Amino acid sequence: MAIPVETFFLDPHAQATLQARIQQMIAQGILSGRFRPGEKLPSSRKLATHLGVSRITVTLAYTELVASDYLTAQGRSGYFVSENAPEPMPKPSAPPAQDRVDWARAIGQRFTGGVAPEKPQDWARYRYPFIYGQADPTLFDHANWRLCALQALGQKDFAALTTDYYDQDDPQLVEFIARHTLPRRGIVADTSQILVTLGAQNALWLAAQVLLTQRRTAAVEDPCYPALRDILTQSRCHLRPISVDANGLPPDALGDAVDVIFTTPSHQCPSSATMPLARRHALLERARQLDALIVEDDYEFEMSFLQSPSPALKSLDQDGRVIYVGSFSKSLFPGLRLGYLVGSAPFIREARALRASVLRHPPGHIQRTAAYFLSLGHYDALIRKTGRVYAQRRQVMEGAIHHYGLEIAGSGAHGGSSFWMRAPHGVDTGQLAQDLRAQGVLIEPGSSFFHGEAPPQNFYRLAYSSIPAERIPEGIARIAGALGQTGLKADR
């Protein structure tokens, strides 16, 4: 990396010669840690012009710094910070600042306090990572994604990348979603009914902000996606948790006076239960009776490798009361942060205005790259490949689970990427997860998915999206062994 010439300034009050001042300026940059080994300095000509001194003065300063091992000269390539340069001096600890603000009173609304599943940043170094939502780099089509990114950076797309769309989205991506993605879920929508978001979570936030007030009631599944519960809590609406069963959200349990229903019918989060078609119709009818809206999070519908997915609620909706949330982050990679909302034009208009006030629109280059990756067929090929691998991993994991006598509490009828597990009564899976880390095993404790102050402690989730099939049996064996030890402790 080259050090920008603009970072160099001479001290006008220094008493030394120009050459000495330049040497001191560069040496201090290295000793402070601003300039790091291997970084390239500006050419002597460029630095001399910037500082308003002669080139020979800069050259002499560089030569002295080479002699003292601060810099190294690499032929015609120029001067670089030496790998043998003195290490930056440790910074003295600053006296603690006197914060005189009463933040307990100053903060008008709190956004902390939610209990999210813990996922270590260094999950990839663990040999048995049974954690949800992480991509397997061995499955992703890096080469074609790179080509699509380069194509998006080409002269042809320059205007699309550099133009400020204000509140609009990449037309190629929106068109693909309308013509190819949504029809696979039985959904017909025009471009005015689609809004691109920064992932499904951003879509859920937009929906909650537009639809809910302090006087309205939101029904949410229990257990549910923890981030959704935080979003609804922050909206200050009345929250009504509805316990799910083996078929997902039971419409008869909704009660009265519900304004918005949040549900995951295709793969209930986290149990992976799939809502049968009859219940989907019943839920739509109950929403009609309540005059309620439904926000359908259709995450992971692409991972239906066991059988074809059930029709989306949105495809069965005759009233326009279903708002559909989709995402490419799960099927491509989580860092993509690209999702979309589908709903009636008045709702999308308000969601678009809210998004514009916060971030205008998702980055144009990401949108255009995704549009090329989708339209050129790479996405479909990736989904087919991932489905085959997931099917194999699921089979291996299910066999290992049965072999070691573990209990499955829920699994997707159509596929998915995880199992919802139940440990014996009295087992704290939070502590179990901590014990397993020492053995290189990562699991996801389930308590954060439940509503209330005393959630069940014996549930956990095992995902197979980021662990090779050959490691699964040993990982399950370690979980079974740890469960045995934990069960003995609980009995005592």
Please provide a written account of the structure.
This protein has helices at about 20-30, 45-50, 55-65, 105, 140-150, 160, 170-180, 200-210, 225-235, 275-290, 315, 345-360, 365-375, 380-405, 430-435, 470-490, and strands spanning about 70-75, 80, 130, 195, 215-220, 240-245, 260-265, 295, 320-325, 340, 405-410, 420, 440, 445, 460-465. The protein is α/β, with parallel strands linked by helices and about 500 residues long. The protein folds into 3 domains: about 5-80, Arc Repressor Mutant, subunit A (Orthogonal Bundle), CATH 1.10.10; about 125-135 and about 380-490, Alpha-Beta Complex (Aspartate Aminotransferase, domain 1); about 140-375, 3-Layer(aba) Sandwich (Aspartate Aminotransferase, domain 2), CATH 3.40.640. A 7-stranded mixed sheet has the order 4-10-9-8-7-5-6, sandwiched between helices. The protein has a 4-stranded antiparallel sheet with strand order 11-12-15-14, with helices on one face. Strands 1-2 form a two-stranded antiparallel ribbon. Helix 5 packs across helix 13 (about 365-375). The longest helix is centred in the C-terminal third of the chain and has 26 residues, at about 380-405. The chain is globular, with a radius of gyration of 28 Å.
Output the keywords.
single chain; 492 residues; alpha/beta; Arc Repressor Mutant, subunit A; Aspartate Aminotransferase, domain 1; Aspartate Aminotransferase, domain 2; 3 domains; seven-stranded mixed β-sheet; 16 helices; 38% helix
- Count of β-strands: 15
Task: Name the overall outline.
Answer: globular
N/C terminus separation: 60 Å
Strand content: 5-15%
Strand order of the largest sheet: 4-10-9-8-7-5-6
Full CATH superfamily name of the largest domain = Type I PLP-dependent aspartate aminotransferase-like (Major domain)
The CATH topology label of the largest domain is Aspartate Aminotransferase, domain 2
- The CATH architecture category of the largest domain equals 3-Layer(aba) Sandwich
Q: How many domains would you count in the coordinates? A: 3
Class by helix and strand content? Answer: alpha/beta
CATH class of the largest domain equals Alpha Beta
Global mean pLDDT: 89
Oligomer: single chain
What count of helical segments does DSSP give?
16
Instruction: Flag low-confidence runs.
Output: 488-492
Proportion in helices: 25-40%
Largest sheet: 7 strands, mixed
Rg measurement, Å? 28 Å
